[in-house]
Design goal:
2-enoyl-CoA Hydratase, Chain A, domain 1, 8-stranded mixed sheet
Amino acid sequence: MARSRSAGPAVHRCPACGAEASEDALRQSLWVCPACGAHLGMPARDRIASLVDAGTFREFDRGLISTDPLRFADQRAYRARLIEARRRTGLREAVVVGAARIGGLPVVLAVFEFAFLGGTMGSVVGEKIAKAFEVATRRRLPVVTVTASGGARMQEGMLSLVQMAKTAAARARHHAAGLAYVSVLAHPTFGGVTASFASLGDILIAEPGAQVGFVGPRVIEATVGEVLPPDSHRAERLFAGGMVDLVLDRRRLREVVQYLLRHLRRGPRGHLAAERLPRAPQTQPPEAWDVVQAARHPQRPTALAYIRRMVASFVELHGDRQSGDDPSIVGGLGEIDGQPVVVIGQERGSWPDRPGGPHQGMPLPEGYRESLRLMRLAGTFGLPVLTLIDTPGAYPGYEAELRGIAPALAANLQAMALLPTPVVAVVIGEGGSGGALALGLADRVYMLEHAFYSVISPEAAAAILYRDAARAPEVAAALKLTAADLLRLGVIDGIIPEPAGGAHADHDAAAAAVRRYVVSALAELGRLPPRRLVERRYRKYRTMGQYGSAWREVARGVQELLESVEQRLQRRPAGPSAAGAGGGQAG
């Protein structure tokens, strides 16, 4: 924002809309233009004051100042530029680091000052960032950085460039210690800062309109002659490309950072209380094709419908940090009965505030890579994982093959097998093939009463086997894809009853039933140490599909006998004793 040279209180002009505002007014609005909402450059000291609890910031390494190791001079000597930057900003370097509290939580904070030589990273800036991570690792504290930088400081040559390696190495040790890092990308963040520690956050937050990238637009156009679109490096374009988790208004930044810090940490979180679960449905299971139709009902609640009813304070995180943000996957942090969780759902619907994807709920590779990233986040901080499965399958198009759909599915399965934290999966609608299973390797797998889970869709199977998709109802029965079938086969762990008429008839009741099962599972699983949890999960899947053992045949015979006896009892005429037994079951 340009500063007026007129006498009197400082007045600044917004570069976006041209409106003028006093410095005091801008400081009160956190340097957000009162007229148009543009996020303006914010002095480091004001930024710190807006984030931390009042009176808690304690700066360290303030005595470190840059020298001139190369005796560099262009139009002006580097030493003269340093002196001028110190005089103009009142700071000794382009970054301020220290310890503070945010919402009562201790944290190490590093905030860049773009007005100091464009926030560039030389030897001293790199040293201060590295020491900030080292202090945080030693004290077992999270780190928050706010960057605004042109990149490496040319006047220090290769000594500046190697700060990328130094800061990344320091963050690597901090990460290996299982400590959280939230990186805020302000305008602009480029070069060696973006390509090192600033991109290594567990959570990446960009401010609206911020330009972020490795090579800036002007340099690209000057060096390779490529003409870029106006929004090529804007935060919103990066968000759509899956490179950042959130684009967040500065006025909400403290609130969201505090929430993230409170959840991304290990430690005691209290215990969930297991609830008494309703009995599995006692009626005759519906026909397989009827289940298929119910699972695909257009009004059936989708993953977001369950999340919004079950998960408090949900913060959706976005993107795979490689190529995109798939709307068929919804995932993030939230709380179920006060228990922090990572929730990942396959979303086949379309919401006014979150348009559905073009692939009818069939995730692309980037959706599964986002899932993988969130699962790893959960593993790092000991957060339980809840997955909500509802997809015809992974997207089968050529674009998915080119972008690596098979490796993405395989990577999810491998990661889920080893996650050192409880994993609960619920098939809420259609569980189609490997695209569903990629979120289904779990300690507890539940299915809603009218959901189905299959190696292939009935239509596709009928087309392959009979060259006639119209025989799908017949094939559906043969595939044994209903919840009752899969419970009998040992593929799932339980059936969640649906409200009368099906989940589509009462979204609230369906979500309440799912929540009860999830809470009970997490209450039980949360008591197991991670090593035992992982071993039990392995043994569970290791024994699936093992046929021929004498014990399995005996167990199958006993199960069939029990079901036969139960059916006979249900057909007995009602009487006093039968009524009493029925009343006991209802309880």
